[in-house]
């Protein structure tokens, strides 16, 4: 959803203090985005066939650098080893890293301990010369128990949609936990700190160096995007678009961050709901449209959501084509679609090629 060991010496120079980065001033507007990249989500995997594998990570990070031509990667998800191994691989390739631990549905202290361990690793990378920013988390109301009622993410989403929650309590608890996370982040990491907020969240951005926003709006006019995003520049700090993207069907941009809900997971195997029309073109057009807006505003970074969703494979039968509901810019193809443990590979979608052309062009400007 729009949801380790120390690294040895590798020849990086000792990192200096963070250098100033562009905000919304005239110079930033002229040069476009500072960083262009993609979100890379990590987890244990839904099935043995989608379990995390270091070899896949190496291949994917290589493709993100060489084929997508991204200069940045958001390493997010849970599992300290998964996150730090991937961040180290990205650092070896010279990519800018946005490290964002998102352990969910666990006690608050466990989530903060997970953040602290990842933050300490990020600091080691930074001191060795890697380009790394640390996000203390993502949309805490979704992942941290007690902010919104619900035993897990899907229950919390349902309660938000049904209005069965206390908005005052939600904002109070959200601000409280963001404050705790910011203090933990500052205690272990001395580079730039941020948080990936949802649109409409009340965040005290004085706690952070970079304003982070998961952005899924859809407007018919570019001016509407600019007007909405300018509200996040009033803090006088760089604005990072920590997620932006859409699914792979006609009308997906209008569904925003809920495009994934077009799957009925109560059925075995899961089925697509209704009769959506698969459209890689819709996804590609939306991504480029938003990227143009972000470039025109001279924002700090934009991370397309997301590179891959291994548990949503593409199939020719629309009824079972879970890639329709995927935000991934590559599609997963199983060798044996009926075997959960089957090996798989990925193929670029139209959106991958569109972003690759744009990112490559920006790198030579």
From TrEMBL:
Regions of compositional bias (Low complexity) in chain numbering: 1-16
Region (Disordered): 1-29
Annotated SUPFAM superfamilies: (Trans)glycosidases (SSF51445)
Gene3D superfamilies reported in the protein's UniProt record: Glycosidases (3.20.20.80)
Name of this protein: Abortive phage infection protein
């Amino acid at each position: 959803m729009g949801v380790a060991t120390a690294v040895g010496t590798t020849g990086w120079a000792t990192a200096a203090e963070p250098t100033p980065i562009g905000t919304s001033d005239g110079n930033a507007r002229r040069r476009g985005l500072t960083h262009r990249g993609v979100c890379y989500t990590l987890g244990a995997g839904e099935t043995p066939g989608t379990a995390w594998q270091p070899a896949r990570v190496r291949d994917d990070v290589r493709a993100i650098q060489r084929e997508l031509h991204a200069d940045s990667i958001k390493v997010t998800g849970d599992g300290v080893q998964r996150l730090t191994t991937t961040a180290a691989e990205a650092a070896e390739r010279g990519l800018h890293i946005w490290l964002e631990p998102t352990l969910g549905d666990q006690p608050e202290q466990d989530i903060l301990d997970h953040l602290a361990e990842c933050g300490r690793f990020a600091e080691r990378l930074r001191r060795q010369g890697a380009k790394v920013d640390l996000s203390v988390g993502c949309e805490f109301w979704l992942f941290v128990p007690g902010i919104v009622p619900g035993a897990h993410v899907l229950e919390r989403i349902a309660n938000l949609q049904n209005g069965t929650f206390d908005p005052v309590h939600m904002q109070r608890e959200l601000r409280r936990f963001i404050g705790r996370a910011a203090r933990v982040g500052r205690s272990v990491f001395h580079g730039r700190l941020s948080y990936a907020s949802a649109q409409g969240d009340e965040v005290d951005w004085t706690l952070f160096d970079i304003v982070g926003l998961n952005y899924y709006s859809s407007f018919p006019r570019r001016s509407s995007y600019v007007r909405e995003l300018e509200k996040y520049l009033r803090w006088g700090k760089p604005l990072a678009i920590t997620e932006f993207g859409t699914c792979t069907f006609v009308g997906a941009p209008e569904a925003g961050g809920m495009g994934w809900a077009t799957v009925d997971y109560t059925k075995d195997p899961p089925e697509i709901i209704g009769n959506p029309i698969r459209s890689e073109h819709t996804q590609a057009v939306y991504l480029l449209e938003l990227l143009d807006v972000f470039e025109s505003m001279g924002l700090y970074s934009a991370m397309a959501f997301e590179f891959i969703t291994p548990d949503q494979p593409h199939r020719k039968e629309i009824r079972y084509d879970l890639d329709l509901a995927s935000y991934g810019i590559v599609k997963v193809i199983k060798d044996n679609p009926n075997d959960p443990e089957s090996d798989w590979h990925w193929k670029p979608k139209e959106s991958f090629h569109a972003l690759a052309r744009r990112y490559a062009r920006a790198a030579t400007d």
